[in-house]
Amino acid sequence: MFLPIATLLALLASSYGAALPSGLEPQAPLSGRIVGGTKTTIADHPWQVSLQRSGSHYCGGSILSNTIIVTAAHCLLSPVTASVLKVRAGTSYKNLGGSLVQVAAFQVHEEYNASSRMNDIGVIRLKNKLTLSSTIKTIALAASAPVHGAAASISGWGSTSYSGSSSSQLLYIDTRIVGRAECGSSTYGYGGTIRETMICAAAANKDACQGDSGGPLVSGGVLVGVVSWGRQCALANYPGVFADVAALREWLLAAQKTV
Prior knowledge:
Blueprint: H1 5-16, E1 34-35, E2 38-39, E3 48-53, E4 56-63, E5 68-71, E6 85-89, E7 99-108, E8 122-126, E9 151-157, E10 170-178, H2 180-183, E11 198-202, E12 207-208, E13 216-219, E14 222-229, E15 240-244, H3 249-258
Antiparallel strand pairs: 1-12, 2-10, 3-4, 3-6, 4-5, 5-8, 6-7, 7-8, 9-10, 9-13, 10-11, 11-15, 13-14, 14-15
């Protein structure tokens, strides 16, 4: 039911010119990237995980329970299969330490739309349980979207600039929520592409970018968004766009039981 990634990229490129949604811009290999990030430790973001395909980090995720991870739907598109996926948790470094656990299965939102990026959410079930600790913790799902202007943070692995080299240590940025109505207004450049399952966040010269897809947007101590897409990275007038966890909460609660 999923388009091959090469076909998906071609379709998106034709629709958006040279700029693709940030989590889908091609890289070889894919790597995490936080623009304008500051080094941090997993103890400050213990819900953060690295989603690894065939041994390499390529997306982020957040721990919902000792067996369930939430990430972006586009991180799980065909030809990705559970057999090539592992999750690394409990470490500040994407390539070493912590717990590396095989993925048993995953489920993508049935109404995920690769063109509009609506419902860009998926859940992963791990083959073995994570052992919860000070560096491996669950995060609660937001019941309502934070208000426009609320403080938030994004974490992930990667470089400190769009064209810089990747970082092996976890990075984070402080940012501010841009409400859905504001993000789709004439203040910014997205217009009607901002839909009801999306929420935005922006800070000058700071953003999530390729490979941070699926990672957490946190506000008020709860998960409010999942890194989804954007116009390049940290580009003026183009906030980062996230799957809105509050809008997708009921699906997430149900999917945890069926994946």
